[in-house]
Every structure is written in C-alpha cells, then in structure tokens.
Amino acid sequence: MDNEELLAQLRAHDEAGLDALIDQYGDLIRQVIWRYLRGGYERGYTQDIENRCYYKIWAKIDTYDAAKGNFEAWVGTIAKHQALDYKKGLKGTFQDLDLAADYLAADEPEPEIDWQPYLQQLSGQQLTVFKLFFVDGLYPMEIAQQLKMKPTAVYKNLSRARQKIQKGGQQAWQS
Amino acid sequence: MAILTNPFINVINSYNGLPEQPAPAYLSDELKQLFRKREVALYISMRQVLDQVTQLLGDGEKIINMLPMTNEANSGYATDGIMGMYAPDSEATKWYRDSQSSLRGNRLMIFTDRRIIFFIVIEFMDDPNQYFSYSYESIKSIKLKSKYFRSADLEHVGKTHTYGSYTLDFETTDRHIFTEFLTKENGELFKQNLLTIPGMQHIEVGNKASRVNRLDYIFSNFSFSFKVFLWVGFGITAWCFIAAVATWIMTLLH
Prior knowledge:
The structure holds 2 protein chains of 2 kinds.
Chain A: H1 3-11, H2 15-36, H3 40-43, H4 46-60, H5 71-90, H6 116-119, H7 124-134, H8 140-147, H9 151-174
Helix pairs in contact in A: 1-2, 2-4, 2-5, 4-5, 7-9, 8-9
Chain B: H1 8-15, H2 29-56, E1 63-69, H3 91-100, E2 107-112, E3 115-120, H4 121-126, E4 132-135, E5 139-150, E6 162-172, E7 177-183, H5 184-196, E8 204-206, H6 216-219, H7 222-253
Parallel strand pairs in B: 5-8
Antiparallel strand pairs in B: 1-2, 2-3, 3-4, 5-6, 6-7
C-alpha cells in the first residue's frame, strides 16, 4: 500500500489502514524506540510505547501536513517523543495517557530541576556533546559523526562536563 | 481477524504499568504479527473507553487501577454462549467486534478512591450509562475465597502443579449482588487494593457469602446453586444407575 492510500485509510479510521501502518512502519517505530531505550528493563515496556505511538498516529493523523515533511519522519518524531517521555519516569503511571491529571491517583510528578546554573559552566562544545548524549540519547559514535570529531574527543568532553557539573553541584550544595 | 489469544489482559496490565508479557511461543511469526495488530486495535478502543470513564468520575475522584476479566480466564457463566450475544450499535463498537472477534466476554472493574465501577466493555462503548457502581461504603463484607485446582495439562503430567483462583462475592446495602470467578492475578490485585485503598479498609473479608435477605442465600447465591445442581445431578445419575442395575438383575432372575 502506498503512502497516499495509507493516509486516506488512516484518516477514515479504517482498520485496514491500522494494519498497514503496523506492517509498513512497525519496524521503524521499534527501531526508533530502541534507540532511546538501551537497557533490557526499559525494553520490557516496548510494546506499551509502541501502542502509544500507534494511538497518537491514529488520533492525530489529521494534524499531519505533507508540505512540512514526509510521513516517515513524522512517525519517527512521534516514536522519539513517546520513548523520551517514557524514559522521563512516566512509565507505570497514567500521567502520559492524555487523561486529565485531576482524574488520576498517581503520585505528583517531581518538579523540573533547573539545570541552567549547572550547564552555564560548560564550554560551548562540552554543552553540545552533553545535550546530545543525555537529552537526545545519541551514542558517542553518532555524536562524533554529527559533530565531525573523534569518538575519544566525545568521551573527553563528556568526562570533563561531568567533572565540572559535579564540582559546581558541590559548591552549590555547600553554599 | 481470526480468533487468537485474547489480548485484553495484556492491554489492561500495560495501563496498570506492568511490563509486557511475550506473545505465546507456539505462535508463528505471522500469527504473532496478527496478535500484535489485535493488541494495538484493542489499545486504541480502550483509550476511548477510558475517556468515557473519566466523564463518570466525581469531583476529585481518582482512578487507582483496573482489573480485567475475560471469558477465557474468568467465568463465562453470564457472558458466553447465548448470554454472550450482543448487537453493536455504533461504528466504534462494530470495529471492536470485528477486530477482537469478541462480544460480551471482556469485562473491566475499575477501582477509584471511592468506588468500584464495573462494566462489560462492548456495552459501555455503546452506552456510557451501562455500568454498575459499587461505593465502598455500601459494601460491608465480601467473600474472597481462594481455591486451588490440580493441573491436568500435558505440560505438567506427573508433577504437583496447581492453579490458584478466587471466588469473589459481595452484596451492597442497596441489594446489588456481584459474583465473579477471579484468576490468581485478579485476586492478588483485589487483595492489594483491600489493603491499600483507604476507603476499603472497613470491608470484612471472609470465606462465606453474606446476604441482606435470607432468601437470597438460596436464590441469589451462585455457590449454593452450584452445589445444589451438583448434588441433584449426582442423585439423578445414582438413581438411574441403581434402576438400570436392578432391571438387569431382574432380567437375569427371570
């Protein structure tokens, strides 16, 4: 089934469209999720995250605009965001189900930590490497390719960034 | 879509935050893919059901967890065969019927901090008023009796392997009676809720069903009815056997 037909069926909420989506994009969705879930424990929740991706695509298909990018990239972005949300400690709760939080008995989410004071002490390159590794979840080899540097340089930047943040954290705690 | 293992319990467990169970090993890759499609379709249907459930909740009422029940794992006494028939109304329900090959089999019990909401999924999808609400205050005591069955499958031949299960029975003060056969996992979740939900702390747990009206001990007591059925059946069989033997002996004597 070509993308035009698939999109038409998904927009019509036709079951055949959902089946085709799983057949044609199931592997892509799983690959994107596994890129961000590295441990065996986290991957034990793969199907749950996949289900959330399929639901998002099913429910939000009308918001897809072909002029802004191809369908594959849109699906990949949804899978990436779902995987990252899951990693942020939302698994096992109802907080990421799009149900109003007032109806859910889950614990209150922890307040967001303001990382800015800690990250300020990093140099430009260290900050870029740090964010790509910890926020975007890229492997050091991928960061090296993206920034056109040697993998050893990536490790060195990460190590120095960690040391600086540790020192900064201790100073902040002592003060 | 062909009937395969029912994914209802898996899907509800994923909503409860439990890790996934692998698809049965005896399924081929193609069947696993079919099962996966069925699971995804059910997940989407259940999201719509949960949206409907949130409309039922009162101010500040919160969902604690959900207990799934199916014909395959629990009882099919009132939801299988003729009792399991249903004619879907809406497009969403027709999609559920076609994708799940299921009618009244899947039931859901939702525990909030104030009450138990129980419904048959397909009926509730068609009509959001088709549900039962049992507030914890209206339940004085419950029967939660564990039972163990010795396995009779080929996998465990010669081994002492048993399957646990529970019988759940309670009557509310406004005389609604609820009886269900729970799996071991269902029973453990129910016990966990009895211990952890503050509103359920006052409920007495025992091995005997209790009824407000004494006649209900006879006419609205599945356990008693089953025993009567068993003994009457046994009596009729024994009588037929004795009559047959007596006839045979009489024939021999003549």
